[in-house]
Amino acid sequence: MMDVKLNDLLEVGVVVGIHGLRGDLKILPLPTGHLALPGARKVYLMDSEGLPVQYDAVRSSQHKQNVLLRLAGLDDLAAVEPLMGVSIWMAKADLPELDDEQYYWSDLEGLEVIDQHQGVLGQVVGMFTTTAHDILEVDGPAGEILIPAIEPFLVQVDRDKGQLHVKLPEGLVPEAEKTP
Predict the structure, then answer these.
(1) Which residues contact 134 (CB under 8 A, 6 or more apart)?
(2) Considering the domain boundaries, does residue 179 fall inside one?
(3) Which residue, 137, 138, 97, 105, is CA-closest to 30?
(4) How far apart are alpha carbons 65 and 34 in whole angstroms?
(5) Does the predicted TM-score (pTM) go above 0.85?
(6) Residues 130-141: tens digit of each pLDDT
């Protein structure tokens, strides 16, 4: 097995429960994890030293808001109970191709956010999921700005220029003070 570095991985979910007696892990997908987990063939969990350990996915399926994942060699309750709260990672090279309008969290991290009316707002520094949709966290001169990661707010992602163009409603971001 080839050594995998953390930079080559994307965190896609967290173990939040166990389903059934065969040790299926109930995974809460992190932002964009729901795009990758259902078809996962191999995943990584961190060992006690923080090093990634590869596991083959025997079964992966959508279950309500979660994903059920069965890993080879972990096929009973005693084997999976210690995994509660553990993060699930996938190799970026193994992530499925997405449509032109879909992006993994790692594709958006660090992009400069530019509003059509107010100009540069800052950089994407985080993302989290709500029951309605994903939310982008942007850090800039106006402080933290939370932007719903949906149309009509997201206008264009330009990875070549490292920019995310948005169109935010008036009042979401305080206008910068103008100096004479």
Answers:
(1) 31, 32, 127, 128, 148, 149, 150
(2) no
(3) 105
(4) 9
(5) no
(6) 777 888 999 998
Is 114 in contact with 165 (CB distance < 8 Å)? Answer: yes
| Bridge partners (DSSP) listed for residue 102 | none
Are 87 and 117 in the same domain? no
Measured CA to CA, the distance from residue 164 to residue 119 in angstroms comes to: 11
Give the domain extent around 63. Answer: 6-94
DSSP letter for each residue of 60-101: EEEETTEEEEEETTB-SHHHHGGGTT-EEEEEGGGSPP--TT
Beta bridge partners of 66: 63
Residue-wise pLDDT for 131-176, tens only, equals 778 889 999 988 899 998 888 898 888 888 999 999 998 877 766 5
Determine phi and psi for 76, rounding to 5 degrees. -150, 165
